[in-house]
Amino acid sequence: MAVSGVIVGGREVLAKRVENALSVGVPLIGSGFAIARLVQGEATWIDLSAFVLFYSFVGIGVGLGLHRFFSHKSFAAHPIFASILGAAGSMAFQGNIIRWVADHRRHHAHTDRDGDLHSPVVDPWGAHAEGVRGWWHAHMGWMFDRTATDISVYGRGLENDPIVAFFTRTYFFWLALSLALPALYGYVLGGPDAVLGAVLFGGFLRISVLHQVIWSVNSFGHMVGEQNFNNGDDSTNNRLLALITFGDGWHNNHHRYPRSYRHGLKPGEIDVNGFIVDSFERLGVVKDVVRIPPERIARDLRESSVPPLAVGPAGALAIHEMGDERLAG
């Protein structure tokens, strides 16, 4: 059955498969050399620091930039800050901004039901999926299936945003810069001999590890963790994922309040991306921050019937539409 915003077959699907194969495959080859260097004890402090530095920069670009800013408009930002977020997110090898945003909005529109592009519970046609098959589809399989997201539906209007349009037109430049910056980092700190290691760790390995981390929110983030809210889907809060995604692992909270700038809502739910927004708001760089009133959060927590216990991908076929009120806050 046809689903609005989902393209089946055709050039769009072929283009998606080819781009994803290159975006995943090329960094994986480089990552193999990085791992061999690590196993052989040849990795240097420059290599490891390059990995941490660029993982943090690009990881925040994905979570804070592609996700909270461009996809959900959780806050407004000064054009310079918005451009930094666009650059960092575009260096993740996860598709241009318009494609990333459209895919993510499609996920929210069809969470864990017919039309969801990366669910461990159902495939894009609503057929039940579970176990390894469901996990694989949510984690990586969706990038090579027979569907593509219709940009005219879920990316409508994005081309009118000059910052989005610029980074979409120049997308391949940012992919090259994603590898060139680690090379420059290695050269500055260690000379020509440090360039290769910095590229392998700060470039290729960082790209591949961040891929797995972001995809884990799609898969494990709907399979393993806790639920603060009964959203009618299987989204969970996973503390490990929250740590390594700078706060985007509080996925159940996010599905409750998609536009909230902060995903960590309860004490102890550390949200680095939310902290960054708070900090830049005080500096005047960020404004119009979407905040959920504490009394509303407290009410929804009381009314939720799902206790904060470990859950699995079950019962997500009885999903209701996400109403305008929830989308707004």
UniProtKB/TrEMBL annotation:
Record-linked InterPro entries: Acyl-CoA_DS, FA_desaturase_dom
Record-annotated membrane-spanning stretches: 20-39, 51-70, 76-98, 171-188, 194-215
A Pfam family assignment: FA_desaturase
Topology of this chain in the membrane: Multi-pass membrane protein
Keywords per UniProt: Fatty acid metabolism, Iron, Lipid metabolism, Membrane, Oxidoreductase, Transmembrane, Transmembrane helix
Main location: membrane
Highest taxon of the lineage: Bacteria
Signal peptide feature range: none
Similarity-based family: Belongs to the fatty acid desaturase type 2 family.
Record PANTHER family: ACYL-COA DESATURASE, BLL4393 PROTEIN
Name of protein: Acyl-CoA desaturase
Organism for this UniProt entry: Chelatococcus sambhunathii
Species classification: Bacteria, Pseudomonadati, Pseudomonadota, Alphaproteobacteria, Hyphomicrobiales
